[in-house]
Design goal:
Strand content: 25-35%
Radius of gyration: 21 Å
Distance between the termini: 59 Å
Shape: globular
Oligomer: single chain
Strand order of the largest sheet: 5-9-8-7-6
Structural class: alpha+beta
Number of strands: 9
Order of helices and strands: HEHEEHEEHEEHHEEH
Number of helices: 7
Largest sheet: 5 strands, antiparallel
Helix content: 25-40%
């Protein structure tokens, strides 16, 4: 296909059209033939339009082929694709600035006898004590949670203690209970627990499901690791 201005100009027009349509379309995509075009497109998405939710995919035509094509996708919504979709590149040297923030965080709780159930009890104890929605399914050793804001910071914990001591005029969970209307959560996440080989511990995998702020997801993951491993 030949288009005035080349593939980057074509992608730029797509971006402008997507900005008008917004979340009426979940994901917009464009295929690029040049690696150099990826940087141009991503920089325009981030710089001009402020897009924080995008994906980069590398297409290789055959295992031994040197021919590559590149796909760039972006969304105005807050639902996060899996990391293997959003950061699907194999080429070495791809700058981190071209790739979205990782949507997967994992850490190990090592030690013989450190089973999934024990780690699950820790995770449930931590998350059930916070002002967020959390549902754990023991059948699949996984749970999904949603938070409207950062409820694990020191300030949030102090506020929580204030409610528990009776100084806040109510239960700390009332904020989540009273607001029944649909509201986009600041953070949606999934926690999966996996047994390590030979029963030498448990791997905790946190998957970013919903959210616009990578700092919030990173903060949550750091908190969970500190409390599970060091708790």
């Amino acid at each position: 296909m030949v288009t005035p201005g080349g593939e980057t100009a074509f992608a730029s027009r797509l971006m402008a059209e997507s900005a008008a349509l917004g979340t009426r379309v979940q994901w917009y995509t464009t295929l690029l033939g040049k690696y150099s075009s990826v940087a141009v497109v991503v920089e325009e998405l981030r710089g001009k339009y402020g897009v924080g939710n995008w994906a980069v995919k590398e297409f290789v035509q055959g295992e031994k082929s040197k021919t590559r094509r590149w796909g760039v996708g972006w969304s105005w919504g807050a639902r996060r694709p899996a990391e293997e979709v959003a950061r699907a590149v194999r080429a070495a040297g791809v700058p981190r600035a071209l790739l979205p923030f990782p949507a997967r965080f994992a850490f190990e709780v090592a030690g013989v006898g450190v089973g999934v159930q024990g780690v699950a009890d820790k995770v449930n104890g931590i998350l059930e004590g916070m002002d967020l929605e959390w549902r754990y399914r023991p059948q699949v050793s996984a749970g999904v949670g949603f938070a409207r804001e950062n409820v694990w910071s020191r300030a949030a914990r102090r506020q929580r203690l204030k409610y528990k001591d009776g100084g806040g005029g109510g239960d700390g969970n009332e904020k989540m209970d009273e607001e029944e209307e649909e509201e986009e959560p600041a953070l949606g996440f999934k926690v999966q627990l996996l047994m390590l080989k030979e029963g030498k511990g448990t791997e905790v995998v946190v998957r970013w499901l919903v959210g616009r702020e990578s700092v919030l997801f990173e903060s949550f993951c750091g908190m969970l690791k500190r409390q599970v491993v060091g708790g």
